[in-house]
Amino acid sequence: MKKVLLAGAVALFGLSNAQIAKGTAYLSGSVQYSQVEKNNGNNKTEKFNVLPTVGYFVGTNLAVGLGIGYQTEKVTNINTTLLPSTTIVSTNETKTPAFVVAPFVRKYWTLGDKLYIFGQLAVPMEFGKTEVENSTVATSGSTTSTTTNSTEAKYTQVGVTVKPGLDYFLNKNWSIEATIGEFGYSNYKPKEGDATNNYNFGLNLSSVTFGVKYVFAK
User: Fold this and answer.
1) Is this model's pTM higher than 0.85 or not?
2) What is the pLDDT of residues 71-86, one digit of tens each?
3) How far is C-alpha 184 from the chain's CA centre?
């Protein structure tokens, strides 16, 4: 199950000859939640993120902005072992909450009176931690024993992404936006450990996202 909600408000102070004028400011944002379960719920992954975004057009069809938000992922794995006289249930739970900051630059090109194509360059940064908890419950007859241990490790991740997209104004008050795929690089660095570099290149129709903006036209 995956639910994606992207809502925002855009203040357009002038749209002359299908150009978005300098001085235009906008507010948008995204909220996303997803949950995937396998093996009758013994393996579950939950993701949640919220990212409000503000932007300002420093020139015609050229905007700069900043997104500030929060994201978290929780992965739970449960394994059950049946012995002749004992049942052992082992649970591994990993959480990765993070504070997110994402400055960006977005350039629009006019395709028609209401249709634009854009490219967005962003520098997403995550400041979070990885929390791991392992617990084992052993039951033998009427006797139950539990052992638990946990660890925590902070991390930072800095990346550079480029996203292409389309923005279509239905009327002066409503706009529909779509992005397709992502080109990017990120560097993941735990507080104690080696850094990992990740690369992501491709236009994938399975990763298309849609957003709806409400426009406040002056």
Assistant:
1) no
2) 999 999 999 999 888 9
3) 14
Residues in the chain: 218
Sign of CA dihedral 182, 185, 190, 196: positive
CA–CA dist 86, 42 (Å, integer): 20
Q: How many CA atoms lie within 13 A of 161 on its CB side?
A: 22
Give the Cα separation of 36 and 49 in Å (integer): 15
What is the distance between the alpha carbons of residues 95 and 73, in angstroms, rounded to a whole number? 6
Unique residue bearing structure tokens 């992005």: 179
**Contact of 29 with 52, CB cutoff 8 Å:** yes
Task: Summarize pLDDT for 55-112 with one digit per residue, the tens.
Answer: 888 998 999 999 999 999 999 999 999 988 899 999 999 999 999 999 999 999 999 8
Question: Tokens for 128?
Answer: 């979070």
Look-up of token digits 């949950």: 35
- Percentage of residues in the chain having pLDDT higher than 90: 47
Q: What values do phi and psi take at 173, rounded to 5?
A: -110, -15
One-letter amino acid at 61 equals N
Task: Kindly report the number of other CB atoms within 10 A of residue 45's CB atom.
Answer: 15
Question: Rounded distance, CA 10 to CA 212, Å?
Answer: 11
